[in-house]
Design goal:
InterPro entries: DUF6729
Helix content: 40-55%
Order of helices and strands: HEEEEEHHEEHHHHH
Pfam families: DUF6729 (PF20499)
Strand order of the largest sheet: 3-2-7-6
Number of strands: 7
Domain DUF6729: 1-170
Distance between the termini: 52 Å
Shape: flat
Radius of gyration: 27 Å
Strand content: 5-15%
Protein name: DUF6729 domain-containing protein
Oligomer: single chain
Length: 209
């Protein structure tokens, strides 16, 4: 939670508020389920309220994270969406996608990882249940009830992964524009090897690129 954890001042992003400082408005009632490479975890955040317009903003929204310095911003582990959230390890996979490595294929790979992790958790659960059943049969425990195996949480469709990639590009838009438009300290043109050797062997004045 950036306001208390990072000890920074956060301001309302709406233009009519003239950078009114946010105040804490309690913990948000909505908990996001974050999708990781091999499973899920939950993420909670607090609400921030503008004292002028009375709007409430989640403390982990992009409008808030953009006000933090880069050192604190990179500590946030995921990208939020309307229903779920995506861990940054998944975002790195989406950045490296290309021809033959589409969002559908990445989703299939993540599905296999989730299924393998789910099977391991079920095996661990059944192994622990076996000890309780043996204790019940020997009379050490009474009325032992074993719950059914939990169902595996479904993954979103491939369009959701594409939406995550678009949000990631949007959040890095300034850095991408800067890298495209910057030509500082870059080699724009290089001569052939023979010409370079001749220039190094002869008089070098006014011959280098």
């Amino acid at each position: 939670m950036p306001r208390k954890q990072c000890k920074v001042r956060l301001y309302c992003p709406h233009p009519g508020c003239d950078k009114q400082e946010f105040a804490s408005a309690g913990i948000s009632q909505k908990v996001r389920q974050v999708i990781d490479i091999d499973g899920f975890y939950n993420l909670a955040c607090d609400n921030l309220e503008c004292m002028k317009c009375r709007r409430r903003v989640l403390s982990w929204s992009h409008a808030i994270l953009s006000q933090l310095d880069i050192g604190h911003r990179v500590q946030f582990p995921c990208i939020l969406t309307a229903k779920h959230a995506c861990d940054m390890s998944m975002v790195l996979l989406l950045r490296n996608r290309g021809l033959g490595n589409s969002c559908s294929q990445i989703r299939n790979k993540v599905y296999e990882q989730h299924h393998e992790a789910w099977l391991k958790q079920n095996a661990h659960y059944l192994t622990d249940c076996e000890g309780f059943i043996d204790a019940s049969q020997s009379g050490l425990l009474v009325n032992v009830l074993i719950a059914e195996l939990p169902e595996r949480n479904p993954l979103p469709r491939h369009r959701w992964f594409m939406n995550i990639y678009i949000q990631d590009v949007f959040q890095r838009l300034d850095e991408i524009k800067a890298s495209i438009t910057s030509v500082s300290e870059r080699i724009l043109k290089m001569d052939s090897t023979k010409k370079v050797v001749k220039k190094l062997a002869g008089h070098p004045a006014k011959t280098a690129l």
